[in-house]
Amino acid sequence: MGFKTAVLAYADGDVATCLRLARTAEAGRTIAMMKRLTPGRTVEPTSPARLWQGMCPPFGHSHAASFPHADIVCDQQLTSPRPSELPVRLVAASAGRRLVLHAMNSVVDWSAFAVWEDGRLVRSLSLSPDDGFIEDIGEPLPFEARYWAADRRAATVSWPDRAEDTDALPFHALRLGVDALRALCGLALDGPPEPADVDGAAIGLHGFLVRGPIAS
Q1: What is the pLDDT of residue 41?
Q2: Can you give the pTM of this predicted structure?
Q3: What distances in angstroms separate CA 93 from CA 51, 123, 126, 213, one per listed residue?
């Protein structure tokens, strides 16, 4: 199964905790959030989606939701190989909150994530077998510990169908990406659900057609 994500999540604390209380966001509130975060872009409502299937909409589209304690925007234009280069305006919008970026593309075995606390970048990691470590900023987060400590064979055992160069990375980039999404946002892409997982099928996102560049 292929995995693709392009997610920005703002939350008043832990993202997963806030998302467990979320269902479908009010449309007007969400449109206001989109205009606030991406001024100068044209935003036109389109079809809605559920979070579990809407984390990487087609280029030129966004899926988004604004809840009382969490805001989510899924948009490929907001991600890049270097998460630390997220536009300043989007980082500034996280003042007093936690901001999580998660991006992944299984076609090229690339995954990336970053965490800001009150506008300060505390961790950013982006990697793929072809490019190695594209970005590695800050101290590893607790869920990363087993990857940095495990040997290569143990870290890649969940992906036995991949004939990859084991010297390219000390662990599989997608496996880490899947675990990062669960640890940072409570969302499971692979394996059986756990009691603490967020039900992505129960959370509704509004759809938007967007035009124009992202403001810096």
Answers
A1: 83
A2: 0.89
A3: 22, 18, 22, 18
